[in-house]
């Protein structure tokens, strides 16, 4: 069997932050891509099909590297991961983005680092210093405050769905990171996808539209992105980063995710960035740096 997993002791915390940042960069395109996809695709079909596509690829990876099967004690944690990040977050956000804009969802992305850190304490047994929580809360307030100031439309249903999505995602991130210390990052998300695959395939066929001829090419590209990058490749880096650098600490990199997403919008959609956004981004970066210092 190919040894594709490195021990935590062989990796420095700095390497964990590097892996985590790559994961955040990949995840930054998830909500815009989902927002685009649900314009032509039912959110249930989108959720089930993206998980099915990623699950098939994960199966090929595990077979190709001849990975050993997980043991019975790890099944429970994998179910938490599957419910949180394979089904919960994608489905809840896909439905929510029919009610709110992707810009408005930044309010809730600002809460994701705090959610992940809290579940890291509950499920991962981490104990950050008190000053860590100050930087984490301040960072969440800065990001959420900026999003609220953008005059996005408000929907109670959409907001409740996004809040539930953030809680599900925080649990899935923390549980997956804890298990990554035993299995490895890409193995965790691969097994979680495989556990979900039979149900996801059946659900995909049940929710498949009668005709797909009217689906635009850009929507197929969005489906490709959320299936391969958001659902699998991003987690390879993200879980590795959380496992090596610490769940509570590295999770604070998610404060940068909304701004990286806006940067992608500038690059690909030619949107403009004002000086307030630059100041808010600087504030988020400072909070990440402060959280990193007091995470252990």
Major pleated sheet:
none
What quaternary form is this?
single chain
**What coarse outline follows from CA principal-axis ratios?**
globular
Rg over CA atoms: 18 Å
Q: Tell me the helix content.
A: over 70%
Instruction: Please provide the ordered H/E string of secondary-structure elements.
Output: HHHHHHHHHHHHH
Structural class: mainly alpha
The total strand number stands at 0
Determine the number of helices (DSSP H or I, runs of at least 4 residues): 13
Could you name the ranges where pLDDT drops below 50 across 5 or more consecutive residues? 1-9
User: Termini, distance in Å?
Assistant: 35 Å
What amount of the residues lies in strands?
Answer: under 5%
What value does the average pLDDT take? 86
Q: In summary, what is this structure?
A:
The protein has 296 residues and is mainly α. It has 13 helices and no strands.
What does this structure look like?
- The chain is mainly alpha-helical and 296 residues long.
- The protein is built from 13 helices and no strands.
- Helix 3 runs antiparallel to helix 4 (72-96) and helix 8 (156-183) crosses helix 9.
- The longest helix is centred in the C-terminal third of the chain and has 29 residues, at 217-245.
- It is globular, with a radius of gyration of 18 Å.
- Residues 1-9 have low confidence and may be disordered.
């Amino acid at each position: 069997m190919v040894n594709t997993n490195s021990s935590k002791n062989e990796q420095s915390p700095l390497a964990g932050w590097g892996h985590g940042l790559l994961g955040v960069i990949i995840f930054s395109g998830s909500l815009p891509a989902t927002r685009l996809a649900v314009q032509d695709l039912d959110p249930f079909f989108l959720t089930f099909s993206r998980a099915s596509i990623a699950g098939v690829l994960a199966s090929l990876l595990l077979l190709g590297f001849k990975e050993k099967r997980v043991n019975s004690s790890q099944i429970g944690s994998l179910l938490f991961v599957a419910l949180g990040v394979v089904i919960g977050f994608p489905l809840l956000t896909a439905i929510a983005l029919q009610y709110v804009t992707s810009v408005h969802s930044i309010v809730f992305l600002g809460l994701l680092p705090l959610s992940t850190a809290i579940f890291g304490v509950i499920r991962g047994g981490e104990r950050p210093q008190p000053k860590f929580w100050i930087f984490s809360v301040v960072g969440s307030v800065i990001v959420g405050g900026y999003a609220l100031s953008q005059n996005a439309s408000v929907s109670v249903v959409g907001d409740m769905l996004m809040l539930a999505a953030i809680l599900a995602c925080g649990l899935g991130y923390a549980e997956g990171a804890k298990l990554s210390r035993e299995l490895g990052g890409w193995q965790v998300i691969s097994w979680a996808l495989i556990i979900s695959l039979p149900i996801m395939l059946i659900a995909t066929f049940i929710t498949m539209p009668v005709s797909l001829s009217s689906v635009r090419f850009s929507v197929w590209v969005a489906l490709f992105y959320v299936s391969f990058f958001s659902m699998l490749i991003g987690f390879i880096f993200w879980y590795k980063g959380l496992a090596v650098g610490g769940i509570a600490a590295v999770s604070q990199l998610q404060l940068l995710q909304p701004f990286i997403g806006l940067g992608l919008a500038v690059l690909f959609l030619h949107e403009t960035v004002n000086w307030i956004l630059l100041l808010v981004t600087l504030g988020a970066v400072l909070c990440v740096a402060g959280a990193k210092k007091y995470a252990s």
